[in-house]
Amino acid sequence: MFTVPDLPYAYNALEPYIDEATMKLHHDKHHAAYVKNLNDALSGHDKFLEMPVEMVVQKLAEVPEAIRTKVRNNGGGHANHSLFWQLLVPKKDGMPHGEVAKAITESFGNFKSLQEKFAAAAMSRFGSGWAWLVSEQGRLTITDTANQDTPLMEGKTPILGLDVWEHAYYLTYQNRRVDYIAAWWQIVNWEEVDRRFLETI
Ligand code: MN3
């Protein structure tokens, strides 16, 4: 059985960048629904219920076809949101540091260039999905996925991800996804990004 992890901070800790009502809805309703639907879909499939969700989404080909789409959508939703909460932190300096900061300079020239390319991916994702920073043995690339798909499904390791479903930002930012993206940079947990980056090299 899968469970919704607690947030590592208070619901209002990310204000004014992400508001308390959005965090409550997003964590307690949206994320909880993915977990419930995943458990329902995998009921009786103990092999998958005992795996970490990150492994389930890497083994979709082994999931019975009748439930595969449900597991893809809801397993992806659970994996993505579990990661997303950890990648946020009450505002610090908003700058990458550590080894990942060096890798950003190597891969993109500078942090601003990464931000521009990442925002372009997040803005061009039509409808619902995610933008990602992926590390392949230390080489950083930007990608985006539809719905609740994750780079894990392609054997890649996401070290930073941004939820661009409207439920992630609509209460504060309405249709202004670009403003949400700009605000989100202020609360990225770069220590956690660096920790995940170090595991890929
Ligand atoms: Mn979401």
Brief descriptors of the model:
binds manganese (III) ion, Helix Hairpins, three-stranded antiparallel β-sheet, 3 strands, minor pseudopilin epsh fold, 201 residues, mainly alpha, 9 helices, globular, single chain, 48% helix, 2 domains
Uncertain stretches of 5 or more adjacent residues: none
The share of residues in helices is 40-55%
User: What is the average per-residue confidence, as pLDDT, rounded to a whole number?
Assistant: 97
Specify the number of helices: 9
The tally of strands reads: 3
Q: What's the CATH first level of the largest domain? A: Alpha Beta
- Terminal residue distance: 31 Å
CATH level 3 topology of the largest domain = minor pseudopilin epsh fold
* Class inferred from helices and paired strands: mainly alpha
The largest pleated sheet is described as: 3 strands, antiparallel
Spell out the helices and strands N to C: HHHHHHEEEHHH
Beta-strand fraction estimate: 5-15%
- The name of the CATH superfamily of the largest domain reads Iron/manganese superoxide dismutase, C-terminal domain
The name of the CATH architecture of the largest domain is 3-Layer(bab) Sandwich
* Count of discrete structural domains: 2
Bound molecules: manganese (III) ion
Shape: globular
